[in-house]
Design goal:
- The protein has strands at about 1-5, 10-15, 20-25, 30-40, 45-50, 55-60, 65-70, 75-80, 90-100, 105-110, 115-119.
- By secondary structure, the protein is mostly beta strands.
- The strands form two sheets. Strands 2, 4, 5, 6, 9, 10 and 11 form a seven-stranded mixed β-sheet that branches. A four-stranded antiparallel β-sheet has the order 1-3-8-7, with no helix packed on it.
- β4 (about 30-40) and β5 form a beta hairpin.
- It is elongated, with a radius of gyration of 14 Å.
């Protein structure tokens, strides 16, 4: 019932910037938390940043001061501005939302977008 479409990944040199975007669509009644996760090869998926429907952000320690998460409640979109990128930020980044539809509250995931940071 909910589709998430991500965009903005790519290849960048260390110290560069990228902006990821995610748009949620479908029969959505409400969205609570919107978040970005990442998963590098051979590693567990980790939470990068999240934002409540009130706009309060939270960040993993590894990205604090470099990444900024924002959301537009009117458009059901969430963005992740990534600055001062490091090679260790290389991963597939996935958008996640907690949304209420006719079947209730559920977690929904995007397909993922690759971010590669070269040294």
């Amino acid at each position: 019932q909910v589709q998430l479409v991500e965009s903005g990944g790519g290849l960048v040199q260390a110290g560069g910037s990228l902006r990821l975007s995610c748009a949620a669509s479908g029969s959505i009644f409400s969205i609570s938390v919107m978040a970005w996760y990442r998963q590098a090869p051979g590693k567990q998926r980790e939470l990068v940043a999240a934002v409540s429907n009130g706009g309060t952000p939270s960040y993993a320690d590894s990205v604090k001061g470099r990444f900024t998460i924002t959301r537009d409640n009117a458009k059901n979109t969430v963005a992740l501005q990534m600055n001062s990128l490091k090679p260790e930020d290389t991963a597939v980044y996935l958008c996640n939302v907690q949304a209420k539809t006719v079947v209730g509250w559920n977690d929904y995931w995007g397909q993922g977008t690759q971010v590669t940071v070269s040294s």
